[in-house]
From TrEMBL:
Keyword Membrane: yes
Protein's UniProt name: PTS system N-acetylmuramic acid-specific EIIBC component
Source organism (scientific name): Cedecea colo
EC number(s) per entry: 2.7.1.192
Principal location: membrane
């Protein structure tokens, strides 16, 4: 991909630099806030060589693929840095009013909440993926050593457990400690990082947000009858949101000369009291209820629950709402060590790959073939967005058949008891995250989902005459 050409083409078809308010990116998408939506040429955006799809929401999201999104966003932001403020087509007041009207038209309250959660976790996602993969690698080392120690009746030696004795004999104990420190530095302090990004999302003081997150994992909490981490990330996000509201109200009544001293002090006292005596206990009940509900659904719903949940996930991904589930995945890991819902979620990847492969073989459109050849390997390795937006949604029926195929992968995940001990990307990248060494079971589940989606898409495509269409 020529990143400069793609970046400049996006700028051109979005009404020029003067129409941009904010540009950022996630794993696969360049996310843009524009001042005037009517200046955006959606069809021209979709036609840019290298663009796999466009999602029009509260932000305009152009899908270009993993690794590419950050480079294209950087190019656009570099060009925006040189833009004088006078080039902005609307005043601040007009712009905010316009954005508020557009959001009110497009978003329900539930969607707004999910979008906020997604925006909070998007900046943390790369670190979550890296830490999850490294945790998986460490689990492979530890589980292998534990199995060897049990099979050969290795005894503990001094302060070393049998597993550590084997790791030491293999000269891998230091590496295991290194990986353990690295991954626990993320997951152990995730509440702090979440507090920081939540404060940024809600326009508050990011250090205050991080401080409130730190309070929820303080080791002194048992002295107040609380457990470190009680209420989880749900409590942190709610507390930081409330802090941002309180901070704005306090600032209205505090004299300017005392603002820098009194405002943070008052806000911190109010919010710490609310956090410790109201939010953490209440959020703990909510968090436990969600976890028990999902675990009960998976336990009692069985393979039917696996099918329905996996079949629904491509729809959530297409709307960019799947990041909103990260707090639930993390809470499951904190509570049980496993995230079974995430294993079900990533079966959507299998369904989309299978459907896109069928489209590649069926279609006579050379442009679609070119896009599919580039999208399928990327989705096999990591994320499903390239096949979702580049192939299956444009094909129409393939998105539905791919989602149904994903459901069969979800059934296999439940049937074989596949789970993960981390969160991250899908496809082959998820292998190190698989818990209890069930790598073959994960691959089998993925292949079942992929095959089911391929067969369904092939049959429907033939019936619809898709293989005879030239465009």
């Amino acid at each position: 991909m020529n990143y400069n050409l793609v970046g400049n083409a996006i700028i051109k078809h979005c009404g020029g630099l003067a129409n941009f308010v904010h540009v950022t990116n996630c794993m696969t998408r360049v996310r843009m806030t524009v001042a005037d939506q009517t200046q955006v040429d959606m069809q021209a955006l979709k036609g840019i060589d290298g663009v796999l799809g466009v999602v029009e929401d509260d932000t305009l999201q152009v899908i270009v693929g993993p690794g590419k999104s950050s480079k294209v966003a950087t190019i656009i932001n570099d060009l925006l840095k040189g833009q004088p403020a006078s080039d902005t087509p609307l005043s601040d007041v007009e712009l905010k009013a316009k954005q508020a009207r557009e959001k009110a038209k497009k978003q329900t309250r539930t969607k707004v909440i999910l979008k906020h959660i997604a925006n909070i976790f998007v900046p943390i996602l790369p670190a979550l993926i890296a830490a999850g993969i490294l945790m998986g690698l460490n689990n492979v080392l530890v589980n292998s050593a534990a199995s060897w120690a049990m099979a050969n009746h290795i005894a503990a030696l001094g302060d070393f457990s049998p597993t550590q004795v084997v790791l030491d004999q293999r000269h891998l104990l230091g590496l295991s400690h290194f990986l353990d420190i690295l991954t626990k530095s993320l997951f152990g302090f995730l509440a702090i990082y979440t507090g920081v990004t939540a404060a940024r999302e809600f326009d508050g003081n990011i250090i205050m947000g991080g401080l409130l997150g730190a309070i929820t994992i303080a080791p002194q909490l048992p002295e107040l009858g609380l457990m470190p981490g009680q209420g989880g990330l749900i409590g942190v996000i709610f507390c930081v949101w409330l802090m941002c509201l309180v901070e704005k109200q306090v600032r209205k009544v505090v004299p300017d000369v005392l603002d820098v001293v009194l405002t943070p002090t008052i806000v911190l006292l109010i919010m710490t009291s609310a956090l410790l005596f109201v939010i953490m206990p209440a959020a703990g009940i909510v968090s436990d209820g969600i976890l028990h509900g999902l675990n009960g659904l998976l336990a009692k719903g069985g393979i039917a629950a696996g099918f329905v949940l996996s079949a629904l996930f491509p729809f959530l991904i297409s709307l960019g709402l799947h990041h909103g589930l990260f707090p639930i995945h993390i809470e499951m890991i904190n509570a049980t060590g496993h995230a079974p819902l995430f294993a079900i979620q990533i079966m959507s990847n299998a369904g989309m790959v299978g459907a896109a492969t069928a489209v590649l073989l069926l279609t006579r459109d050379p442009v679609m073939k070119k896009i599919a050849r580039g999208a399928i390997p990327t989705s096999i390795l990591a994320v499903g967005e390239p096949t979702i937006f580049g192939v299956n949604i444009p094909a129409g029926f393939a998105f539905i058949t791919g989602s149904i195929g994903a459901g069969f992968g979800g059934m296999m995940v439940v049937l074989l008891g596949v789970s993960t001990n981390g969160v991250g990307a899908a496809g082959l990248s998820a292998l190190p995250l698989i818990a209890d060494g069930k790598y073959l079971q994960y691959i089998l589940s993925w292949l079942v989902g992929c095959t089911a989606a391929f067969v369904l898409t092939w049959i429907v495509g033939k019936v619809r005459g898709y293989d005879k269409a030239t465009a």
